[in-house]
Design goal:
It is built from no helices and eleven strands. It is mainly β. Strands 2, 4, 5, 6, 9, 10 and 11 form a seven-stranded mixed sheet that branches. A four-stranded antiparallel sheet has the order 1-3-8-7, with no helix packed on it. The protein is globular.
Length: 114
């Protein structure tokens, strides 16, 4: 059974930081590209970041580039999203995703106050 469990969300002031974590199980994590997506009522789901199987390469949405960093720990089956200089427009539910298989976690809420 595939499980993706996100944590680390919360309420933070603009300019602050948060680190999201995702613990994965039930599939071959080390062989999977991992993504972070976010969803808001107004904008729907949008891609945030991706990381290759080895963790060597990351790719980012334009509006988070330079502020967010994706990383992974294959020994612990975990993927992370370090977020700096958060803005109110980053407010969303953030999801850990396995794009090849369509697996999504339950999400963690990030709220950035101005």
């Amino acid at each position: 059974q595939v499980k993706l469990v996100e944590s680390g969300g919360g309420l933070v002031q603009a300019g602050g930081s948060l680190r999201l974590s995702c613990v994965a199980s039930g599939f071959r994590f080390n062989n999977s590209i991992m993504n972070w997506y976010r969803q808001t009522p107004g904008k729907g789901r949008e891609f945030v970041a991706a990381i290759t199987e080895s963790g060597e390469y990351g790719r980012y949405a334009v509006d988070v580039r330079g502020r967010f960093t994706i990383s992974r720990d294959n020994a612990r089956n975990m993927v992370f999203l370090q977020m700096y200089n958060l803005k109110p427009e980053d407010t969303a539910v953030y999801y850990c995703v396995v794009p090849a298989d369509g697996y999504w976690g339950q999400g963690t809420q990030v709220t950035v106050s101005s």
